[in-house]
């Protein structure tokens, strides 16, 4: 047993060394720095921060480098590191209405108050490879300032003036913290939103796409999609007031959805909501669609049996770290389990062969 353990340790050490060599790649090529990943692979960094539940671009970039570009592995690293950090307190809710906007578009109003701000987006680019990037071409600077420091009102606020959309009443209840408490079903909307924000972008996208194809369709419009920086404020007991401790970049999406009304509510528009770290607009839009699909019960709608309406299915399968852990554990040694299965199959085969021989003899 001792020899087997030592042999296993030696093999694992060699695997670690091989991994480090593969991570580095061809040593004649300059090594990729954490700063380069942070600045030039920013969308990947944003996803790792969003699904890792930790806003730190440097650590996210380091995790991506360590994981050789495997974003789910990087998310796993960030979550593991997050558990080691002390918690000093809780910040106030973000005031996204005071966001310094770099991108803000609405699909519901052409002349939106505050204007449409296209910002940095792939929406209007040709999907053609830009070979100048391979030649290390210099990118021309943007001709105008990318951000506005003025507060930009939310589009849904203008619908609210006429009572055309449900009122979103803030709650004083402290929402549960999914990073510190296990998931409990049925889940409150704040808990669902946390799970969706941490959920795998691909899974959330698939669920959102299914609603657009008719599986629990809610016929959503993007009321507003905005990206920018917001201040993080924290109450300091010794001071008796809140102070700004920093800024974070976030993506916020509010969808406007048809609602035919119920016994207690008149026909009006309803909301879907998504908020994530960084510029992660695909995730925020998908999150808002799934959020709206999961609200069918509280709005008195029928459950059509769509996957996106099934709270247990969506929330228990959205987390890529949990899914990866359960999926990849089956490649680890299961010798004893397999031997029992092997013995069972052999026994069943022997019984079947014996029965066939007996039948043939008769």
Explain how this protein is built.
The chain has helices at 2-24, 34-40, 42-52, 57-66, 71-82, 155-160, 189-198, 201-212, 281-294, 311-317, 320-328, 335-361, and strands at residues 100-105, 220-236, 241-257, 270-277. It has 362 residues and is α+β, with helices and mostly antiparallel strands. The protein has three domains: 2-82, no CATH class; 99-324, no CATH class; 335-361. Helices cover 41% and strands 13% of the residues. The chain has a four-stranded antiparallel beta sheet. Strand 2 and strand 3 (241-257) form a beta hairpin. The protein has twelve helices and four strands; from the N terminus they run H-H-H-H-H-E-H-H-H-E-E-E-H-H-H-H.
Q: Any idea what the radius of gyration is?
A: 26 Å
**Segments where pLDDT lies below 50 for 5+ residues?**
1-5
**Per the principal axes of the C-alpha atoms, what is the gross shape?**
globular
Helix content: 40-55%
Q: Concise description?
A:
By secondary structure, the chain is an alpha+beta fold. It has helices at residues 2-24, 34-40, 42-52, 57-66, 71-82, 155-160, 189-198, 201-212, 281-294, 311-317, 320-328, 335-361; strands at residues 100-105, 220-236, 241-257, 270-277. The chain has a 4-stranded antiparallel β-sheet.
